Amino acid sequence: MSSTNLSTKSAGVGLFAALVASLCCITPVFSLLAGIGGIAATFSWMEPLRPYLIAMTIGVLAFAWYQKLRPRTDEEIACACEPADEAKKPSFWQSKKFLGIVTVFALITLAFPSYSYLFYNQPTQQNIVADLQEENIKLATLKIDGMTCTSCEEHVKHAGLELKGVLEVDVSYKEGMAYVKYDEKLVTIDEIITAINTTGYKVVDTQVTNWSADNQLFKHVNYNTIEVTIKGMTCSGCEEHVKHEVNNLEGISEVNASFEKGNAVIKYNTDKVSEAQIEEAINKTGYTVVKPAKKN
Q: Along the 296 residues of the chain, how does pLDDT read in single tens digits?
């Protein structure tokens, strides 16, 4: 098999791995757009495999580029079966342009969880009513099975906010929880549970309490952004490793890592996680935070 054909086949394998790695995050958006809510959690079981599939994607694409860019040996040229004029003009499917398109598409696919919220336009708040009375406001704490990423959170939030009478929804896939503030005169807890279950995720436990102005949920969240310098990152796989580890911490809003700059910019909830915990999480990956964080 020629290096050109091997490169093309490797590109196909890399693209397939990227798609499979992101199925658990892409499916909720597809189910929303297609109106097939029940399939949202179909691939949630694949989430633990995602880091390995990301590594596989990067490795296969790197091999494809190596095969594409390395010079052919004299032996390969001598053994080439195709005429010289054809060898100079590979088809589009065997070209660097095609491999570049596949690589960009694969990277966009792998990064899908970080921008999936763009597909969820929050419903117009017809939910808010003028005669809102505090004694009618309830807080539902729901334990939900099947959520694996921010795309899942947005899907559940969207389903809740579509109901008239639901005032606010906060969802955490890391905790497997949803918190719903609602007016019991306009919507029942059973209707909320049904709406969430139709997404494909399942409410497995429910607790309803009276809303209080002292309740900490839905209050202003104090976010801080820091930039940390990291030693040891050499490729996009390193970036994903750092992002994955930091995102496992509660209270992390956004992580952007760059092996080229040797840094990571992290937005986090100061009430739930500290700089020390973030640096410890990064150091556990094998890369090292080499100087104090810069605050923004």
A: 555 566 667 667 766 766 666 655 555 555 555 555 555 455 555 566 667 777 877 887 787 887 777 776 666 555 555 554 444 566 776 777 877 887 887 777 777 666 665 655 555 444 454 456 777 899 999 999 888 777 788 888 888 988 989 988 988 888 889 999 999 999 999 999 999 988 888 899 999 998 876 666 766 667 789 999 999 998 888 888 898 889 888 888 888 899 889 999 998 888 888 999 999 999 988 899 987 666 65
Q: Which of 16, 42, 18 is nearest to 29 (CA)?
A: 42
Say which residues have a Cβ less than 8 Å from residue 38's Cβ, sequence separation at least 6.
Answer: 31, 198, 199, 200
Boundary residue ending a domain (210, 235, 261): 210
Do both 47 and 128 map to the same domain? no
Q: Which DSSP string do the residues of 214-269 spell out, in sequence order? A: T--TTSPP-EEEEEEEEES--SHHHHHHHHHHHHTSTTEEEEEEETTTTEEEEEEE
Q: How many Cβ atoms are within 10 Å of 12's Cβ, its own excluded?
A: 13
- Number of independent structural domains in the chain: 3
Q: At which of 118, 135, 165 does a domain end?
A: 118
CB 44 within 8 A of CB 148: yes
DSSP 73: P
